[in-house]
Amino acid sequence: MKAEIIAVGTELLLGQVINTNAAFLAEELADLGIEVYYQTVVGDNPQRLAELITEAEQRSELLVLCGGLGPTEDDLTKQVVATHLGRDLVQDQQGLKKMEQHFTFSGRRMTENNLLQTLYISGGTPLANTTGLASGSFITVAQHHYLLLPGPPSELQPMFRLAARPLLTALSPVQERIVSRVLRFYGIGESQLVTELADLIAGQTNPTIAPYAKPNEVTLRLTAKASDESVANQLLQPVIEEILARLGQYYYGEGETTTLAQVVVAQLQAAGQTITAAESLTAGLFQSTLGDVPGVSSVFPGGFVTYSAATKMAFLDIDPQLIEIHGAVSEACAKAMAQQAREKAHTDLAVAFTGVAGPEPLEGKPAGTVWIAVASQQGVRAELCHFNRDRAYIRHSAVMKGLDMVRRQK
């Protein structure tokens, strides 16, 4: 079965909202053995949407429409599809009950236009929305299937997994499984990675190897097609082993959403170690990145943001003469910050950042000059880094390098 994903919303066309739904749906459909050949975006215009549906029917059996199920005048997806199919819209009684309970509980008055959200296409199946109010809809007419989902990812994803996926599974039993593994690398650029794997990439058939450059890291998506997941993983495993044999020093983890911070926190938890940080140019970004990881409180009691020379001296007791002689952007200062932070927070490790975020030079050093130090019971080590691009990228680069230094700390 071939599918087409149609995202509805003028905000998508204007770039005001990123279309993350397409990526989610494409991966989910592939897992069901349904191939997505086209992804399209159309604004909140009934005529253009109707024209697109007609066009999509010429090339796909399954049309997945996301967005336009809300209560406002520009939410017209259900109405346009119903008109196109010559069907009426009818009330989803379970959806209506949930909506009434929602407004009763919140103490707000339910306006008439909210009832539009509880309509679905006659002859089809209403899809429950566990995290929102707009009901979805699934209907088969002749040789085509139409799946209507809400636009917010927080509503679309659970609706697809809980309500739509079982319907599609029954509709199209999987003949072939598509399994992907994502490998993540830090400290190597995409061009170098591709060069190191040139022969594997050139000779790929099944599995396939696709590199992707992301901010301060590179990922490899390996995809195999097989009769079932076990066979697909058997195809993937020797390729992964060969890649890691060549690039293992840069590899930090596997997974679509795995982050370097998650890996570092898990490593610290496994070792029973704690960490703190002293940040100048990153201004708390390292600690904030750690804070994004659930359970980080078991390894991170807190830290220091010492942006100026005065706060370095006041919060960390950095010797004024050290800064006067060596400067704030120096190896000596970075090491002192790490050592003092570790002592004051009573942690096993401490990482310190001092440098020039830009855009102007500081202490005669150009933007992107960064010293990062890691202190432990064994001592303190520091590295001089030269990052480029804009201010935000320099700060993010520093955080990623600091995480990697902690990851490699023995």
UniProtKB/TrEMBL annotation:
Residues 4-170 form the MoaB/Mog domain. It comes from the Bacteria. SMART domains: MoCF_biosynth. Pfam families: CinA (PF02464), CinA_KH (PF18146), MoCF_biosynth (PF00994). Belongs to the CinA family. PANTHER family: NICOTINAMIDE-NUCLEOTIDE AMIDOHYDROLASE PNCC, NMN AMIDOHYDROLASE-LIKE PROTEIN YFAY. This is Putative competence-damage inducible protein.
